[in-house]
Amino acid sequence: MRLVAATHNAGKAREIHALLDGHYTVVTAGELNLPEPAETETTFVGNAMLKARHAAAFSGEVSLADDSGLSVVALDGAPGIFSARWGGPERDFGLAMRKIEARLEDLGATDRSAFFTSALAVAWPDGPCVVVEGRVDGQLTFPSRGDRGFGYDPIFIPEGHSQTFAEMEPGLKDGLSHRARAFEQLKAALID
Ligand code: ITT
User: Fold this and answer.
1) Ligand 1 center to residue 104 CA distance, Å?
2) Which CATH architecture describes the domain 2-191?
3) Which ipTM did the prediction report?
């Protein structure tokens, strides 16, 4: 079966391929030239549903969307749903990571705990939309380390590990990430 991955983010698309290839033929919204909707909702779940429904309506095919981000506990959950926007129009995550470090320093905060969230929504054209959420907790580290992955991976060390997501073999991240956990939930939701 073919599934539209409603993302224009190459890092996410790679991980979605790694998690679903062999089960579905994955084609991305970018490859189909689908328009990108404005993310106007106020939660990961709301934005995931908005993106999945939008792609299903435009493509006429079953569509999967991911809305995700990094929440820093000492920053009251920022950047959270604004994680992509903290990179600015250039999507400069080096800048976004330095901004997090600067804000923590300005506050004199020593708590480096943070978590990634991924909301995954599957929408059928003119049909239902199923949504789930996965989360992975960890600690931030500065300066950034590693050159794999994408986004905020170089500053995030998941609980129980010593490497950042950007230092890990991709297969290791794909097995324990917020996105992997959301996929587990999704499988359970679709089978039940
Ligand atoms: P699409 O909406 O097209 O899927 P996007 O990049 O705009 O792409 P989001 O609005 O969900 O997606 O923003 C998520 C941001 O959070 C993303 O750009 C990364 O900076 C960050 N992020 C999400 N998952 C991540 C991960 O696994 N590793 C590192 N950073 C991640």
Assistant:
1) 21
2) Alpha-Beta Complex (3.90)
3) 0.98
